Amino acid sequence: MRPTDLLTVSDVAERSGFAPSALRFYEREGLVHATRTSGNQRRYERNVLRRLAFIRAARNVGLSLEEVAAALATLPEGRTPTRADWTRLSRSWRHRLDDQIAALTKLRDGLDSCIGCGCLSLKKCAMSNPADVVADRGPGAAFLPAPLRRSS
Amino acid sequence: MRPTDLLTVSDVAERSGFAPSALRFYEREGLVHATRTSGNQRRYERNVLRRLAFIRAARNVGLSLEEVAAALATLPEGRTPTRADWTRLSRSWRHRLDDQIAALTKLRDGLDSCIGCGCLSLKKCAMSNPADVVADRGPGAAFLPAPLRRSS
DNA sequence: CTTGTAGTTGAAGTCAACTTCAAGTCAAGC
DNA sequence: GCTTGACTTGAAGTTGACTTCAACTACAAG
Predict the structure, then answer these.
(1) Tens digit of pLDDT per residue, chain A (152 long)?
(2) Phi and psi at residue B35, in whole multiples of 5°?
(3) In the beta sheet, which residues pair with residue B43?
(4) B 80-109 near A (Cβ less than 8 A)
(5) Class of CATH domain B3-92
(6) Considering only CA atoms, which of A111, A105, A104, A110 is closest in space to residue A147?
(7) Is A31 exposed, middle or buried (0-12, 13-18, 19+ CB in 10 A)?
(8) Residue A148, phi then psi, degrees to nearest 5
(9) In angstroms, how far is CA B30 from the centroid of its own chain?
């Protein structure tokens, strides 16, 4: 589309759905990389789109940018990541999603009994204290997965 | 436990699991109410614990404080809320949880096929674009329920 | 009455994940 | 070569839900 096959920031913004400001932010945070023209404008290689797709997907799963960065850092340095590389990164999400679904399901089922009783007891109600645990705010047993958790 | 049956801020903090600072914040925001001693210290009625239980539960379901406030505002002014009042408030969460669970399940199932293909295509992959919709950032079709959504 | 713990306030800080702004520079079509 | 729109930067602002701080006051046990 351009003299070379490099993409401008607005190309990438349009194709990835991320705002240009987000792209710059991600670059500052080390999540994506861009080369520069002689005039200091960003030029992206096409593979950045896959990286951005990964980032969006990871955010949907509930990963923080920090976690995403850590995951991306495990990609091989020298070569272009293969399909298998991406698959490896995605596979761990399955677990995370299972956990999230299980937590919400438990919450919902707790709600069913809660509607029956109308109690909202702090110590007993599955909705406000879903794991049947007396609120112990230690770092240990968090009921909801991080993205859903309200810690205090 | 005290001369009257009124609770101090630390009583409530301990029993509800909310930090005193959160309790003061909730009071400023109009979510809970406290009377004052002659020396201007807060004294809570016991029913505040139920209100706080509701707040915690609502937060777990993914409601914002603003939504919680709106829900609490529908409670009757004059009388102490009945079991039926709380039940009515809780009932609407069932839907919300169902939506959240459905969204996550769809995401997970999308992941299964995604692991198979390793594509992470922006336009096609269920993980980064789970509703099979070209990213249209209008206010309309949001894939995930609000608490899970990453809007851009 | 003294002492120490618990409580009070408004203002400011925190965190994540960006967005917005101002002031200026680059690239491309005519 | 000129104009116009795209791009650059660092700094500051945004949002939600609180937490932290400093400076001060209240309450209850001894």
Answers:
(1) 444 689 999 999 999 999 999 999 999 999 999 999 999 999 999 999 999 999 998 888 888 999 999 999 999 888 888 888 888 888 888 888 888 888 888 878 877 777 777 777 777 777 776 554 433 333 322 334 444 444 33
(2) -85, 175
(3) B35
(4) 83-84, 86-87, 90-91, 93-94, 97-98, 100-101, 104-105, 107-108
(5) mainly alpha
(6) A104
(7) buried
(8) -105, -10
(9) 16
**Contact between residue A12 and residue A52 where contact means Cβ atoms under 8 Å apart:** yes
Asked if A114 lies within 8 A of B90 by C-beta distance, the reply is yes
DSSP string of B78-135, one letter each residue: SSPPPHHHHHHHHHHHHHHHHHHHHHHHHHHHHHHHHHHH----TTT-TTTSTTS---
Q: State the DSSP code for B69.
A: H
Amino acid whose CA is nearest the C1' of C20:
A21
Write out the residue limits of the CATH 1.10.1660.10 domain(s) in chain A. Answer: 3-92
For chain A, the farthest-separated pair of C-alpha atoms sits apart, in whole angstroms, at 70
Q: What is the pLDDT of residues A75-101, one digit of tens each?
A: 988 888 888 888 888 888 888 888 888
Nucleotide nearest B3 (Cα, C1'):
D28
DSSP B7: B
Q: What's the rounded Cα separation, in Å, for the pair B133 and A89?
A: 24
The set of residues with CB closer than 7 Å to nucleic strand D is A 8-11, 20, 24, 34, 40-42, 150, 152; B 2-3, 19, 21-22, 24-26, 37-41, 59, 64-66
The DSSP output letter for B43 is E
Query: DSSP string spanning A99-135?
Result: HHHHHHHHHHHHHHHHHHH----TTT-TTTSTTS---
Bases in strand C with any atom closer than 7 Å to a protein CB: 6-9, 16-21, 25-28
Q: How far apart are CA B93 and CA A122, in angstroms?
A: 18
